[in-house]
Design brief:
Oligomer: homodimer
Number of helices of chain A: 3
Largest sheet of chain A: 6 strands, antiparallel
Helix content of chain A: 10-25%
Strand content of chain A: 35-45%
Structural class of chain A: alpha+beta
Number of strands of chain A: 6
Shape of chain A: globular
Order of helices and strands of chain A: EHHEEEEHE
Chain lengths: 133, 133
């Protein structure tokens, strides 16, 4: 696309070497994500968390400015976090809050820009893509 | 990290040139994401959608295998979709379903592998990262 336009910012955050107990504790995960949203200056709309058997949890916090999600693998001491925003909020505060709250000894992240003409497709199958018109 | 291990797969899907009406219609968006989950062979746990004023919507479908989210900008005829899975499900079916259901004339996507030692950090600030131990 000729005219690129950024509409959202999306952080892919990987948390490593977290205590297993932290990643299998729904109230702690929900509290951590909601507080991370607040730390960014975001407005929480709703949240929904689920415990899976025997290990692991999934959760989402919908914010006025988009969302935060988390999926945990306590057996690997790993959590996959996404922070998606479309407002002028301080995402780094959310990253910092979560790294501390879930006691990650290491973390990595990518910042993706979302919007018009920004994603570089890697594709799965060209069959999915309609022809340009 | 020496030992990389894929735990989840994450599709970043960008839908362009969708009809404005499709992107501002909560029942249609919710139905589309739930059916996309079913098309992949995923099990829907819950869903939550919100309309924003005056335009735009956000929604999430939590599936047993992780989640789908969507954020729409009807004024740009654009929707940002994420499909995150940790099970053996057919993500391409979900992509194909959503491209058709929301009448996207064009789409792009990236496939990200989530897990141990897979993200290449682009970083925001080195201050967030604790030192390796």
């Amino acid at each position: 696309m000729k005219n690129a336009k950024e509409l959202g910012r999306h952080i892919i955050l990987e948390l490593y070497d977290c205590p297993e107990a932290a990643l299998n504790n729904i109230p702690r995960l929900e509290d951590s994500l909601r507080r991370a949203a607040e730390a960014m200056g975001a407005s929480v709309v709703s949240s929904s968390f689920h415990q899976f058997s025997p290990y692991g949890a999934s959760g989402v916090v919908i914010i006025q400015e988009s969302h935060l999600t988390i999926h945990t693998w306590p057996e690997y001491r790993y959590a996959a976090v996404d922070i998606f925003t479309c407002g002028e909020i301080d995402m780094e505060q959310g990253v910092q809050y979560l790294v501390k709250a879930l006691e990650a000894k290491r973390s990595d992240w990518q910042l993706l820009k979302r919007g018009l003409g920004l994603v570089r497709p890697t594709g799965i199958s060209p069959s999915v893509r309609p022809k340009p018109y």
